Structures are given as C-alpha cells and as structure tokens.
Amino acid sequence: MPKLDSFTLEIKTGARPGPEKPIFNINGFPLEFEALEGATAPGETLKAVGNVFSFPHALALIGPAEGSAPWDIESVRATYQCANSEPYTVMMGAVTLDDESNLNVWHEPPPPTFDV
Amino acid sequence: MPSWFKKVFSGGDGRAPEPAPAPIPASRPAPAPAPRPAAPKAFDFGDGRPKIRKVISAPIIVPEEERSSYSAEIRIKAQVDKDGRSCRFMLDRPIFEGLSAWFPEKRWTKDASLLAEKLFGVAGVGTVLLHDTTITIARAEGNNRGWKDIATEAGVLIREDLKSGAPAVSDAFRTGIPPEAEIRRRIQTVLDLEINPGIASHSGVVTLERVEGNSVYLTMGGGCQGCAASSITLRQGIHTAFRRAVPEVGAIYDETDHKSGSNPYFKELPAGMMA
Fold it and tell me: Cβ separation of B58 and A112 shorter than 8 Å?
C-alpha cells in the first residue's frame, strides 16, 4: 500500500444536495478537508482537497448528518498523490449516501500496463 | 502468640486493630454502588452522527479512451498483478466471446485449444485462462522468468492465433459447457454443503453473485471480507472445490469490495485507547 500524501475529490451532486462542508474519514478518524471550492447543491461540483500523509487502510467520504436527507452523488473524480509517485485519477459513478453510510474513496494505483 | 508473629500476620503494625464497622440497620437502604467512569467515546463526530457507518462503493468508470476498440492492428496490453503471480493480456477483440476456458496443465488443452497448447510452450507459463477479450497466464511454480520476456513471446502467439481466424477454443469444448442454470445449481450446492459450513468457524460466508456463460462471480462476506488470507482461501479452497464439482467452469472472480461493508479492516478502538 502506498503512502498517500493528499487527495482531491471533485464531487458532482445529483438531484438531492449534500452537506455544505463534507468531511472525510481516514482510518476511522474524521478530518476536515483543507480546501473546499464549489458547492454540493444539485448539479454543482465541489472540489475538496484532503491531506493525509499516511497509509490509507480506510478512506471514506462521510455521508449526511443523522436525520438529514440522502445525498445524491452523480460522479466523483478522485486524484491521488502518493509519496514518490506520479498522481493518478479514478472516476466513480453515481451513488447515494444516507445518514448511515460513507463512500469508500480509496482506490490503489492501477497496476502498470505495457504493450506487447 | 509472640508479638512479632501478631505484627506480621495480623496485617497490622502491632497496634490495636481498628474497630469493625457498625452493622447497617435493616431499615437503612443499601448504599448505591459508586458510578463507574464512562468509557471514552471513540469516533464521536460531535454532531450526533452515528459512530459506525456502512461503507459503500461507487462503480468505477473506465474512461472512453482506455476501452478496447477494434482496429486494423491487433492491440494487446499486458498487466502484471500486484503479487507478480499472473499477467493479464487485454486484447482489443474477443478470443473466446462470452465464455471462458481454464487450463491448469498442457494436457488439458488437447482437443480444446491450440492457442493454449502453444502458450504452454512458453517457458514460465503455469496456467492459462481465456475469457472473452482477456488471457490470463499464471507463472509456473518455481519459475522466476521476467514477465516482459514471457509476455513478449506470448504476444506473438496470441497475434498469430487471432490473425489465423481459427477459433481459439474448439467447438467440442464450447458445446460441452453446461447451461448457466446448471452451473449455478451445482456451484450453489458446493457452497451450501462444502464451503460455507467450512468457513463458518471463521464467521465467513461466500455468496454466489452470478454466473455468466461459464464464469463464476462471487463475493466473500462476514469474517472473509477484508481478511488478508481471503485470496488464499479463494485460490486454494474455493477454486479447487468449484472445479472439482463443475470442471467446465472457466473464470472465477472475487467481486468482494474488501474496503466496504459495516466496518472493514478497522475495528472500533477499545475503551480508553486514544486516537
């Protein structure tokens, strides 16, 4: 598992809005994003940067607060900057987070490919 | 009794013992036990959110430009898995459309696949799996030949086979594959009678998600999810049992998201343990 320095999520919200300031969970501990740009209103995109500097055994975007309406996410574009390596990007599709769920946003770097 | 003995074994210092506490009158209520200190809360977000949530996954979207497409030139990409045990060749066209064929040894290729037979001729090849647009080669036991060398040789053979236009897998093999419903029934029987009772002691459970053609997709839950040994269980136990029960099964895939679930990998910290 590589050491994750930081990651950027570009979250496009679907029909139902999400929390104004989402937070994430690294290895079981909640943390705030360092920088938030944009919004989680329907149709809008929020860009959030999280600093980790650790080994991400579990990395999740925390769903809406208890009692809040579900959050429709249309897509998430995650870019990971791991130590001593080039950044890589993973695209995730539609998902709905409710007040009892978090979204796994950790995806290991894809194995390299070569032409034969 | 000597005084020194009394001093040592009475638990006192030789002075007169303290008077015993007066008995509690029957009418007096029993004193309430001292309140135990509350266990520290782990993962308290401070805003009323539940501490343990289910972790779900969103589908991964493969960018359009990375998808295979037909072209005049046969394109083959090779991808070595993380532990270096196998190499997957991704082709830009089907090699065995919708179906899969697994060959653990060269002798299994007889009358089944000329391509697989040729691939076994490449030094270092241990097993061959043909599935739709992919070919997966596992390294032979004890062989340390570099994957680049193996892949280069294998790539030449795969190209030759595709250019020849002949089917990579014989019709006899294809027609011998049982219907999906039959494979599903037999695999489910193996799960119910053999595998799940065996891994129940580890609180594990294996679920048959679907059968596509003769390819089996399963998920591992309970104690198996997130378990570091799950891949060994899959390779050594489940694969063997499935193939014994249904020899026509080709690919077997574990679709478990080992990072999702109620609380994969990480457990709630014991009371008192700080973050």
Answer: no
